[in-house]
Amino acid sequence: MNLKNAPYWDIKSLVVYLLMGLVGAGCIWWAHSRYNRSIRIYRYKVRAPYILLFFVWEIMATFRLVALHIGGADSLEYIKFFETRNSGEFHFYQDTTEPLFQLITKLIRFVTSDYHVYFFVLYAFMIIVYMVFFENFYVYRMSIIPQILLFFHFLRGLSSLRTNLATSFLLLSIVLYKKDKKWMALIVSGASVFIHRSLLIYSVFIVFIYLYSKKQFPLWKMFAFIIVSAFVGRIGQYLVLSGSIPFLQGKFLWYASRSVGNSFFDNFWKIAFSQMLLGGVLFILNEWLLKDISTRDDEETNRLKILRTACIFDIIMIPVCYILNIWRGYEFFYVIRLMMWGECIYVIKKHVKNKSVISVVMFILFISWMIFRIYNTYEDTSLMPYIFEPIYRLIYE
Questions:
Q1: What is the domain extent for residue 371?
Q2: What average pLDDT does range 277-289 have in this prediction?
Q3: Where are the alpha helices (DSSP H) in 248-388?
Q4: pLDDT, tens only, 137-153
Q5: Residue 58 buriedness (CB in 10 A; 0-12 / 13-18 / 19+)
Q6: How many CA atoms lie within 13 A of 247 on its CB side?
Q7: Which residues pair with 40 in a beta bridge?
Q8: Is there a domain that residue 187 lies in?
């Protein structure tokens, strides 16, 4: 196997990733079907499908081969950063990464020098947050088809570990809010900023949801907020470029300067496409969605209101992300958008006769979108080819 040419497009890796996506969607469907069985682990009951999902994704992520242009673009640097913690050796991440991420890395390094353990702990946290989020926000008959793309979000974390970890904190804060633990939700949401500072603009979602989730947020107000968002973005850009906020300097300053003189339609619209597409669907299906939400029981109504409000907030944040060039902003509520797509598909199927055709078409579309996204990102992220390290070592060493 010639790794010197990596990254390169690899059909075998694509098949692995698609299978992981199908495993994820299948386990979520199984977990919420009448065929599910729970297993008691200590004092807690855990759905058996989630245990399967956890170990399949965990093993795949933790024991991938990491080398130059293999296993994730930033993975080698994360490994070096982990291995040099507590040794006194300098790594440039000391000056560029946020304090909570550094603390987490140091704590794990105190326990072990094996980076596989480091990966295992962080990816385990991400997967568990996915499962906890679905337990708290899945609603009856929500389509599972969009969850094929959940693995794509997880796959991105094999390269951008810190972004996905911070996003997991943000998702966990929303779960805490839903459980009426508002102060804890604020703390955890704030903690996400000290893992990746670009989540600063999304960390205020807990305040936004407190103000609007109990109401049916009118879509006309969303357009008004988008205009306000653009003004806020420009003010934020001015403050960052002026050096008024020390925490938002360094690489963040460089990013914030990138949109100066550029148009949203040059390139950023491609990044925000999935957010805008869902926004259009929410607008078209607004009446059907509101009617379905109102006919659910109180628990499911609350879940759907929070998801809908989160998607609206996500769309409102597009101008801020563009102006500050937070090009990973579309990933922060990626999981929430997938769940909202599931609700939209269910609502569409309620109003058509041939429901199976809708399911087949949606399955093809979401699989195609996943292939398209992998194809467009595998070079920058160095996520192809995928190589399972134990087998590689056994054969080639």
A1: 11-396
A2: 93
A3: 251-257, 268-271, 273-284, 286-295, 298-316, 318-323, 329-332, 334-350, 355-381
A4: 999 889 999 999 999 99
A5: middle
A6: 11
A7: 45
A8: yes
**pLDDT grade, residue 93 (50/70/90)?**
low
The pair of three-digit structure tokens given for residue 199, joined into one six-digit string: 């989540």
Asked if residues 93 and 57 have their Cβ atoms less than 8 Å apart, the reply is no
Domain count, the chain: 1
pLDDT at 132 exceeding the cut of 70: yes
| pLDDT tens column, 141-193 | 899 999 999 999 999 999 989 999 999 999 999 999 999 999 999 999 999 99
Q: Report yes or no on 2 lying in a domain.
A: no
Assigned token pair, 126? 């991400």
Question: 347 with 289: CB under 8 angstroms?
Answer: yes
The distance from CA 198 to its chain's CA centroid, rounded to whole angstroms, is 14
> In the numeric block, which tokens belong to residue 29?
């469907």
Quickly tell me which residue has 């809708």 as its tokens.
Answer: 358
Establish if 4 belongs to a structural domain.
no
The verdict on residue 1 lying in a domain is no
